[in-house]
Amino acid sequence: MPDSRGDATPHRMTVDHPWFSRWYVRTEQAVERAVGDARRAQNAAALGRTLIVGAGTGLDVPALGPGATDVVLLEPDATMREILAQRYPALRLVGEPAEAMRLEPGSMDTVISSLVLCSVSDLRQVLDEILRVLRPGGQYLFMEHVANPRWLASAVQRAVDPLWHRMGGGCHLTRDVALALAESALQPDWLEPVHRGGLLPVIRGRATSPGG
Ligand SMILES: C[S@@+](CC[C@H](N)C(=O)[O-])C[C@H]1O[C@@H](n2cnc3c(N)ncnc32)[C@H](O)[C@@H]1O
Predict the structure, then answer these.
(1) In which domain, by residue range, is 38 found?
(2) I need a labelling partner for 112 at 20 to 30 A (CA). Which of 59, 98, 136, 198 fits?
(3) How much distance in Å is there from the Cα of 77 to the middle of ligand 1?
């Protein structure tokens, strides 16, 4: 079954994956060949105080448009944080997991997540936290890889997922992000496929915090 919740043990916040983090740096060019255009289109829309959740090695930063201000990078993995601190010393960097952000309620105009919801321990809790830190009317921009709705691809994803999870820094192939968003109190504005096929179909979209 596609998973709109998260791991069976929510809040099992094992977020340090040094081997994966060092490997991810070496895959950056391949990642950007696959999703760079979608990332630039997504981040061009960032406006105002902007939080990047699960910032990783910081690929979202150069893709930000001029409207993004007061950028905060949230990254719980220590190795990723070292890379971020070297690459973007001027930006505010915080180290808690997205399930338990220490940011003030309503303190962000834009929240961005790129290829992150696959790895969080508790997907619903993360969406609740994103809603909490967004001001009313603030926007959540997401680009995420998701469960494949086609039965054969879905079966392959589920078969591969346990090993993938172990090798991929806690990543799951089977997250139903669209369903989790629909079940959250965020208001989905639009959602579109970036890549449809195989193990790693990618969607992107925007949801808004109610009010404002
Ligand atoms: C595949 S990397 C993507 C990094 C970056 N967003 C990008 O697009 O290149 C997944 C990132 O999510 C982070 N992550 C994992 N669990 C997290 C959590 N509970 N809260 C916030 N970030 C998390 C990882 O540390 C890692 O940096």
Answers:
(1) 18-208
(2) 198
(3) 8
117 in a structural domain: yes
- Judge if the beta carbon of residue 79 lies within 6 A of ligand 1: no
Contact 57, 24 (CB under 8 A): yes
Instruction: Report the separation in Å between the CA atom of 112 and the middle of ligand 1, taken as the mean of its atom positions.
Output: 11
Task: Going residue by residue through the chain, which has 212 residues, state the pLDDT in tens, using 9 for 90 and above.
Answer: 666 666 544 444 567 899 999 999 999 999 999 999 999 999 999 999 999 999 999 999 999 999 999 999 999 999 999 999 999 999 999 999 999 999 999 999 999 999 999 999 999 999 999 999 999 999 999 999 999 999 999 999 999 999 999 999 999 999 999 999 999 999 999 999 999 989 999 999 999 999 87
> What total of structural domains would you count in the chain?
1
Report the nearest atom of ligand 1 relative to the CA of 77.
25
Alpha-carbon distances, residue 198 vs 120, 129, 154, 165, 166 (angstroms): 22, 30, 9, 17, 20
Q: Is the CB of 98 under 6 A from ligand 1?
A: yes
What CATH number has the domain bearing residue 158? 3.40.50.150
The CB of 114 under 6 Å from ligand 1? The reply is yes
- Residue 183 phi/psi, 5-degree rounding, is -85, -10
**Which residue, chain included where needed, has tokens 């961005």?**
112
In a domain, 6, yes or no: no
